[in-house]
Design goal:
By secondary structure, this protein is of the alpha+beta class. Helix content is about 25%, strand content about 5%.
């Protein structure tokens, strides 16, 4: 009998994997990496899977929805509810690509 089935037969709840006990939250970066525009947590911003962050104007018009850092697509950054920002605040560390939009568009 498999270990998973053995848990079910005994009626015992299998403990959650250790990876799920402390969820990692999305890093809400404070600026566009292309033009350095301020992007507060509620701003309309775009991100890639590595959390590279861009304002919608740069993401769509300059980068054409492709992250210049990893080559992945850009998607709308989700909004963290105001009540959750107290527990999981947005990042204050600004990141800017060398050359800004010009450096990004050249890739």
């Amino acid at each position: 009998m498999s270990a998973l089935l053995a848990w079910a037969v005994k009626g015992v709840k299998k403990p959650a994997p250790t990876c799920c006990k402390e969820p990692t939250v999305l890093e809400l970066r404070p600026n566009c990496e292309c033009c350095d525009k301020d992007l507060p947590p509620q701003a309309d911003a775009l991100i890639c899977t590595y959390e590279c962050t861009f304002c919608r104007n740069c993401g769509e018009n300059v980068l054409k929805d492709v992250c210049p850092n990893c080559g992945g697509n850009l998607a709308t950054r989700p909004i963290r509810p105001q009540a959750k920002l107290a527990k999981d605040p947005a990042s204050t560390i600004r990141k800017l690509r060398p050359g800004g939009c010009a450096g990004a568009a050249a890739n």
